[in-house]
Amino acid sequence: MTKTNLNTPIAPSHLQQRSLETVWHPCTQMKQHEAYPLIPVTSGKGVWLHDADGNCYLDAISSWWVNLFGHSNAYINAAIRDQLEKIEHVMLAGFTHEPVVALSERLRNMAPGTLGHCFYASDGASAIEIALKMSFHYWLLCGQPQKNRFISLQNDYHGETLGALSVTDVAIFKQTYAPLLRQCTHVPTPDWRYAEPGESAHDYAIRAAAALEQHVAENYEQIAALILEPLVQGATGMGMYHPIYLQRAREICHQYQIHMIADEIAVGFGRTGTLFACNQADIAPDFLCLSKGLSGGYLPLSVVMTTDTIYQAFYDDKIAHAFLHSHSHSGNALACRAALATLDIFEQNQIIDANKIKAAYLNKIATALAAHPKVINFRNCGMIWAFEVETEEADFAATCFQAGLKQQLLLRPLGRTIYFMPPYIINEQEMDLLVNGTLQILDTL
Ligand SMILES: *Cc1c(COP(=O)(O)O)cnc(C)c1O
């Protein structure tokens, strides 16, 4: 271990080594960094990240799906700076402030259905914990304490904390911790890659919904909620499915009196081509979880929106009927201002329409990619593209990541699935670079 003077700036050339000496990086086998160097990022602008050695990388995955309008966005920067001069943060129990009120009003007006109240946390996983606890507590308050089980979709991902991991079904993240987790039933995924040959995505979704109905019909008395990732199952490798499944799931939840929790942490704010994925099925969940793009990817912020029926069940003279859950940074003023600025950009620039044009362009230039002999299941939903690569490479994800850097691309495959989830400000020239660079990678691997 080297002793370092803590007050002097760190020379960029020392960042890699000093990071390895003291930072435990997320979702990383740290020993792999003996072979693969960390990338010390010194600045970013638009879709580009710049490193200490003067390289730049096109952030094709929006820094883990959070960034919507580019790095160092002038408009969001200005809003945060302005807020910084007023109040950076105040506890949200007993206090309130303009950014959190304005954000809650705007979210209520945008969200599907009538989701009247917003409960804030900092990360996606915390939002999931909140929704699960609220759902259970609601049924408890309604005199149905036996409704304490949750169901989710096969291959769903909802985060890494114990409650969120319990409803997750991605083995690599979950298996090790199984003894710590609550039982959860995962009903068959509607992901169309599982369809029989000749079966349409629509018909397969209907078949998956029938399996859901059968499970719910037999177990609804014990089930508090169905939680799902609407339209795109992200972490499992961008599994996509037909909106009819959401419609059927909504009907089934109504019919058997169980809550529907829509985890739009990854897909909310335009990712699937509509503001929310639920819009494509014209449904409203009982709980809507949002994070990632909510603050434009700037600051940790998440929210659980819920119906008046649920809110009212907690509204009582008895303290114990309240939702006694808190996070220190709940409703952080700077994060809420970043979110308000993000929503401004959506409105002022008609982003949803603009994205349709961008997506059409990318689909047009990606025909060679879709037809590449190593590529299967090429798929697109809104501003998400994904495909599997037929490869013998044992550690394809790591090899492809390294090959991407040589093409100035930040790609981080999920297993053998390469995906693009670029910031919405990506332009045609940058899309050309992304597609051509990816073709180069496929030809060299
Ligand atoms: C990322 C993600 C989460 C967890 O959010 P964190 O902020 O990483 O805790 C939950 N659900 C989905 C669908 C996600 O993509």
From TrEMBL:
Subcellular localization, as worded in the UniProt entry: Cytoplasm
Catalytic activity: (8S)-8-amino-7-oxononanoate + S-adenosyl-L-methionine = S-adenosyl-4-methylsulfanyl-2-oxobutanoate + (7R,8S)-7,8-diammoniononanoate
Record has S-adenosyl-L-methionine as a keyword: yes
Main localization (coarse): cytoplasm
Pathway(s) of this molecule: Cofactor biosynthesis; biotin biosynthesis; 7,8-diaminononanoate from 8-amino-7-oxononanoate (SAM route): step 1/1
Class of enzymatic activity (EC top level): transferase
Name assigned to this protein: Adenosylmethionine-8-amino-7-oxononanoate aminotransferase
Name of the coding gene: bioA
